[in-house]
Amino acid sequence: MTDMQKKSFGTMLSPIRAGQHMLRNRVIMGSMHTRLETEPDSIARQIAFYAERARGEAAILVTGGFAPNAEGMFDPEGPRIDDPEDARSLRPICEAVQAEGSLICAQLLHAGRYAKIESCVAPSPIRAPINRIVPREMTDADIRRTIEDFAKAAKNAQAAGFDGVEIMGSEGYLINEFTVIHTNKREDEWGGSAENRHRFPVEIVRAVRERCGSDFLVIYRISAADLVEGGAPAEEIADLARKIEAEGADILNTGIGWHEARVPTIAYQVPRGAWRQAAANVKAAVSIPVVASNRINTPEIAEDILASGEADMISMARPFLADPHFVKKTREGHADEINTCIACNQACLDFIFSDRPVSCLVNPRAGRETEFRESPTESPKKVAVVGGGAAGMATASEAAMLGHDVTLFEAQDKLGGQLNLAQAAPGKDEFNETLRYYGGQLQKHGVKLRLGQRAGSDDLTGFDHVVISTGVTPRIPDLPGVDHPSVATYAEILSGNRAAGDTVVVMGAGGIGHDVAEFLVTEPAETHNTDAFCETWGVDPQFTTSGALAGDPLAPKPSRRKVVMLQRKTSKAGAGLGVSTGWILRNALRKHGVEALGGVVYDRIDDAGLHIVMDGEPKIIAADTIVLCTGQEPERALAEDLAAQGVTVTMIGGAKEAAELDALRAIDEGVRLAQSL
Ligand code: NAP
Ligand code: SF4
Hints:
The chain is α/β, with parallel strands linked by helices and 677 residues long.
């Protein structure tokens, strides 16, 4: 029995009553935008997506947000539930989930001033910083009609077979816009005092409860920390929570941070469980179940929050993309087999922001369930995989799971390849969970591991299929003085084989350049420490102040190192970073005083430092250390050797194409190749 199997997750797995329902455990799959609603075969794909997560035993699944009316749509294509006929088309999804023993609730989300549609509305005509459209101020009649629209939408959901609804009152959407002075400047009965600002959500909950009866589950998602100036203080949040309870809500879920907030809330830079105190504040005010959410991604942290009494339930969204069977594996004593969400946002939020249906970096099946088979192969093959980085591990474990006889060669004495470097960046040690997961899968499915063995052509005879996933090596630019002792590669710095001095030049401002710069300016004690995180980003650790802010999230946070990051392009540094994490990295570096310079021409390196030309002027940047983050080259020596001998190989990952290689592409290619063997 592993240490993980010995751990108890008794609170998380115990049933709990919510309204008229006895829930099978204390885990909710939180709402996520999936974009599956507008895909071809939409219903079939949603059935596959949600039913798989119900098989994984979450007590309640909350769908992505459905607008209760046309103005509330997130974008012109967004899902809505204002037409009873359309709503009925969702019945097979509900039935598939209920057949697996979970409840399913439709989230009702009115996007308010975040709606990317010309007809967007808000309590006051104040444009959101993340939307170019100025909202129209709602009239009293609009407000009353919208309350009625929420009630009708809930009724439509009920008629379609949903067990309940979640009313989205957080994240800066319409309801949240009414509750705080940041966005509600009204002087009628819907604005001004807290009593007036709370009237809109209170009346919505009342109308939904009245329309749908007592056994329909009503979850209200309250904003437990707005993280914007003019947000609600804790006593107003508690007051609203009590009113919502009095109107008959069964569960209070908590939301953290508006979408326009300048504080990271769910990315890997946020310590696990950072927001638990915000949920605890709500729980202290009411007696219905309160749900903690955001940056909870393991059964350990979930159990810890529940057992400490800070919340009654846990909502996890992305962790159910990474592993639909999170709860089932925990219940069966296999928590160490959970594929953990690493909070990278790369295939979930960043896909949504680029109009693609949701998926997951560590689990390419997510949102693509109908494209993958689970059943064992009928023609098992003998497969060699050379290179045990992300691509190789994914290929080997998937192929072995499907019944192939797999041998994995890795030249280093440990698996992981580039993931071993990536995990050194602040917060990216979440990748260690991916390494733990694949290590377990390789063992479970009987992959023969040849660690510390650089495979040669002699080792690769007798296989039906040879997969080359030998990865990449750091690119060394052709520059006079690049062999100067002050020069190090990103691999040397991140692996700890070389230490950087106090003044550092980072050459290259791509993903790795940003990671290295953040690594260099962040003290180890700053990561995984909620107090340090709150101090860095201006958050009140007790979550009592207005908006739970205690300072300017962008205030400088000087570092003991002076770091300059360079690129030859004239575009904004980090322009290619992920939409949902790039702004955090850029702001973190700015706060730490990292200077980013573009349009640079590299000349040479010598004892004086890095010689560059900028705006036609020669300059010298003195540095103790110059770190090369100048891209990668594919590692193809073995593949070329084998090709010369007439051996057929399949190349994947960085070996196939080094440009823009990341773990997302590596794992996706590996899993898909294994499926095609
Ligand atoms: P990258 O994003 O392509 O950046 C490479 C950098 O090197 C660029 O700034 C490029 O800028 C510079 N460069 C390229 N060739 C050069 C040369 N011969 N001499 C000098 N400079 C040169 O690649 P990466 O940073 O190596 O990252 C690899 C992949 O991992 C990328 O897909 C990246 O998106 C991903 N990744 C993402 C993150 C993240 O999003 N947080 C973190 C790590 C990695 P100039 O040509 O303008 O100088
Ligand atoms: Fe989590 Fe990253 Fe997967 Fe999103 S893509 S669910 S953040 S692991």
